TrEMBL record:
<dbReference type="Pfam" id="PF13561">
    <property type="entry name" value="adh_short_C2"/>
</dbReference>
<protein>
    <submittedName>
        <fullName>3-oxoacyl-ACP reductase</fullName>
    </submittedName>
</protein>
<dbReference type="InterPro" id="IPR050259">
    <property type="entry name" value="SDR"/>
</dbReference>
<dbReference type="InterPro" id="IPR036291">
    <property type="entry name" value="NAD(P)-bd_dom_sf"/>
</dbReference>
<dbReference type="InterPro" id="IPR002347">
    <property type="entry name" value="SDR_fam"/>
</dbReference>
<comment type="similarity">
    <text>Belongs to the short-chain dehydrogenases/reductases (SDR) family.</text>
</comment>
Length: 264
């Protein structure tokens, strides 16, 4: 299927690895020019080189890397200094740490909200009017399956991402919708990324159980009986950015292998 977005410009955050990289790769393979952003310059540059060398990348599609912390005002300024206008924006930032809510002070909450709610809002605010003026725009916010099924130890994430979800529910249905701009959230479940591996390593350290045993238990709890792959997550993202998804806005698209058992 031709997604109809070749030649567009996309900003993909947290794109040096994991789900962000999967999204950048999928868009690039559709002929989209991609600006990838992450904090670690060395890993980011390596990712940019790998994406540029991807044999499935159309020769016309380019990759630009900006090493910056997108959750800061200075980081966002660095990105928009490279390019002001984008047709596609994929927001993504590492989730806050797990823990007991009794131990989180105001600073911990502000940091979580700043990264996982206010940063996406700032990126939306900076780009949607230009999208509307050109008659096409796609915002995809990478959030979490915990928005649908909250996890007790992820209170910081539940709160911050829940706030973003409420904001998107309203702004996506504003006048932007009639001007070709869609805003959707993409909710990952358990994907085979460094963050998942880190979590299992932490669980292994606390319980003394082998990582392989923890991995097996987690996979068996998923109807698909496996973890997701960043590449398939990227393909979903690319579709949401396509011309074919123009009638979808304000949605929370869950990709979790069937783990969430609710009807709605």
């Amino acid at each position: 299927m031709d997604l109809g977005i070749a030649g567009k410009w996309a900003l993909v955050c947290g794109a040096s690895k994991g789900l962000g990289r999967g999204c950048a790769q999928a868009l690039l393979r559709e002929g989209v020019n991609v600006v990838i952003v992450a904090r670690g310059a060395e890993v980011l540059e390596a990712t940019a080189a790998a994406l540029q060398a991807d044999p499935l990348r159309p020769v016309s599609a380019v990759v630009q890397a900006v090493a910056a912390d997108i959750t800061t005002e200075a980081g966002r300024a660095a990105v928009f200094a490279v390019r002001k206008d984008f047709d596609i924006v994929v927001t993504n930032a590492g989730g806050p740490p797990p823990g007991d809510f009794r131990e989180w002070d105001r600073e911990a909450w502000i940091k979580a909200v700043d990264a996982n709610m206010l940063t996406p809002i700032e990126l939306i605010k900076a780009t949607v009017d230009g999208m509307a003026a050109r008659g096409f725009g796609r915002i995809v916010n990478i959030t979490s399956s915990a928005v649908k099924s909250p996890i007790d130890v992820l209170g910081l994430s539940n709160g911050a991402r829940g706030g973003l979800t409420g904001f998107v529910a309203g702004v996506s249905r504003s006048s932007l919708a009639a001007k070709g701009v869609t805003i959707n959230n993409l909710l990952p479940g358990a994907f085979d990324t460094d963050r998942l591996k880190s979590g299992m390593q932490s669980a292994s350290s606390k319980t003394g159980q082998p990582i392989d045993a923890i991995r097996e238990v987690r996979m068996k709890a998923i109807p698909a009986q496996r973890f997701g792959h960043p590449e398939e997550f990227g393909a979903i993202c690319a579709f949401l950015c396509s011309v074919h998804a123009g009638y979808m806005t304000g949605q929370n698209v869950l990709a979790d292998g069937g783990a969430y058992s609710g009807t709605f």
